[in-house]
Every structure is written in C-alpha cells, then in structure tokens.
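Support request, please re-run this one:
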Amino acid sequence: MALRINDSEFYAVDAHSHLGKRKTPLGHGVASFLGEDLVRNLDEAGLDCAVAFPLGASYTDYSEANQIMADEMAKYPKRIISFCRINPNFGPETTARSLDHCLGTLKLKGIKLHPEIEFFDPNEAQLMEPIYHAARRYRVPIIFHTGMSSKASPGVIAELAAQYRDVPVILGHMGVSEYVKLAVAVARQNENIFLETSVVGWMPLLLEAFRGVGTSKILFGSDHPYNPLPMEVEKISKHVAKAAKLKQDDLKKVFADNLLSILHHDPIARVVPDVQAVPDVPIV
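Re-run finished. Output below.
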C-alpha cells in the first residue's frame, strides 16, 4: 500500500482517527466504527496505517473502549496504531492505574485527551501530572483535541507541556480555526509540540502553519470517520502541496516520517518499507 501523489509513491500514516462502539451516535453521527471499517477505508485512500483512539463518551473512564483499541490493533498490527483515551476527572490515582494498564499491559502506543468533551483543564497540574509522567515513563506521545473552546486552547495546553520537554505533545486539529495562530506560536516556542492537520479547512491558516513551523513539525491527520479520508488526503497532497510548494521530502515528513520519529521506540516503525531515494523537487 502506498499513497500516490503525481508520479511518486509515499508511505502514509493518518495521525488522527477513531475506533470503537458507543450506545448513541452523538453529534458526529457515528456509533460503531471498528478496525475492519478503518482498514477498508485506508485501502481506498491509499494509506498504509493510522493512529486511532476511542470514540468520545464524556461519562466513561474509557476502560472498555481502551480494551477495544488493543483488540483491534492485535487484529491489524501493521495497519492500526492504537492510543488509549483517558478521562482525568476520575482522579489522579485512577488515571495512573489506567495508564499503567493501557500502556504497560495493553501495550497501547500513546494517549488521547479531549479537554472539551471530558471537560477538564489541561493545565491543572494535579490532574495532568500522572498523564505526563506516564507518557515520559513509557515514552509515548500525548495528542490533545484543540479548538472549539477555551479549555482546548493550545496556549493553555502549552503551559504544562513546556515543563515536559521530553514528552511529545501533538495539537490535534492545530486549533481548528480560532486557535491556529496560537497553535503555530506555541509549536515554534516548544520543541516537543507538534501540529496535526485535520479539520482545518481555510488555506491561509494551513499555509500559516506550514510556513510558520516548517514541515518537520506537522503531521497529516484526518479525524476519520468524522471526515472522509480522501478529502483530508487531497487537502494536503494536492492543495497545500501546490500552494506551499512542498517538495517530496516535505510530503514524506508530513505523511509519515514525523509521526514515526515520535514513535521511534515503537515496533510499528519497523513496518516502513525501504524506499528508493527520489529527486527533491517541488510537487506542482
């Protein structure tokens, strides 16, 4: 499997997708979406694998959902990189135990946090310290939903993230729209903060991110199944690539290399095929 852009093929990873089951579809219109569904859609879009985390459900500790993530990754170990999802409102001790189980026992590969759905403050040290400590201990990244509320502001998230410079922090949706400029600013100021592209749809904001932090700090993401994969792929591979005059090396970074570098300790990195060197020319 490879993503084809013009006459070149790229190993490609989606840094932001969802799996799981919930009783009602909520506002997103999705109640069930499992590994078989995701892999089928990855194939159709030409993507090799995806980071996935549980569908949102604000009144749960995600223990059942995290087990589903482990089960689905076991079914498709070369296609799905499962992260756990944590609700910090259950308290620091519960959070620490949950993360030890998810990262130590289930061998999940990262942590997803959603300050808006779970309604917590991402700079409240008492709630967040067990999460950052676990990420440091297990050497995994944290991805935050950002945008749509002040609780999910990149500036708020960066206050604590700046104190854990050895923990990679990914700003999912890089602020959506109202916080993109702030997301770019904190990513420039903090070596451990990265931007993920899903949902952002206005070209001036996308270009501000690509020009503001460079392609070494940007990860392609789709927010699938809430967004169609082909739409998000084409947004970057066709429209941003042309407007920002991205070269093949830039696209390799955004579609895979940056994320795989963050997951450098992870066995998933070993599934990346050897790729022949290609000329470093703009994609137009």
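The longest strand covers residues 13-21. The chain has one domain: 10-271.
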